[in-house]
Design brief:
The protein has 64 residues and is an all-alpha fold.
Amino acid sequence: MKNVIKSWKTTLLGIILIASGIGYTFVNAAPDYILVCLLIGSGIGFVFSPDSVIELLKNKSKEL
């Protein structure tokens, strides 16, 4: 539990991705379930990942 409290950035990003995946299914009459699975799956991944993942992604985007 300390890891989740300490790394709040990725937890918040994961919750936003999960909520957007669930919300997408209710807004559209015929949602694309592959997109929903990607949003919810990546959200679950971000909930349990450390904040160093965001720093790694920032560094990779600077290199491009």
